[in-house]
Amino acid sequence: MICALVCALGLNSMLQCVVRCTRAALAEPAGWVSHRRLNAGLKREDVVALPVATYAAAPQQAPAGCAICLSDFSDGEKIRVLPACGHRFHVVCVDTWLLSHCSCPTCRRRLSPLGAEAPLEMAIAP
């Protein structure tokens, strides 16, 4: 009985989400499409053009790590530094992320393809 109740609540939540998204797409199709394009990933050429550095651990400091895969950087490893915010990630990890998102995975600051970065507008609840 409890399992059926949980399934019914999950189905209800999913249907509400679909109805809400459909209403937004039908009410303001141009705004909805432009919002979706605005949050799309970068082109592969733009991702490859981002700077790459070789990691060298600073003495007597805790090792830094990639916020995507959660593993520490090792000496001599290639890392990509995002110019908008300076956050560092493994090249493979952040390239995969940036092909489907246009912002830093840590601070969500927008990366523009032309190099003119602007902060991502988003409401932060207290």
The largest β sheet comes out as:
3 strands, antiparallel
Bin the strand percentage. 5-15%
Helix content: 25-40%
Structural class: mainly alpha
From the alpha-carbon coordinates, what is the Rg to the nearest angstrom?
20 Å
Which key phrases capture this entry?
single chain, 126 residues, mainly alpha, 3-stranded antiparallel sheet, 4 helices, flat, disordered C terminus, transmembrane
Task: Describe the protein in words.
- 39% of the residues lie in helices and 8% in strands.
- It contains 4 helices and 3 strands.
- Strands 1-2-3 form a 3-stranded antiparallel sheet.
- The longest helix has 26 residues, at 2-27.
- The chain starts with a helix and ends in a 28-residue tail after the last helix.
- The model is unreliable at 114-126 (pLDDT under 50).
List strands and helices in order, with pairings.
Blueprint: H1 2-27, H2 29-38, H3 44-48, E1 52-54, E2 78-81, E3 88-90, H4 91-98
Antiparallel strand pairs: 1-2, 2-3
Helix pairs in contact: 1-2
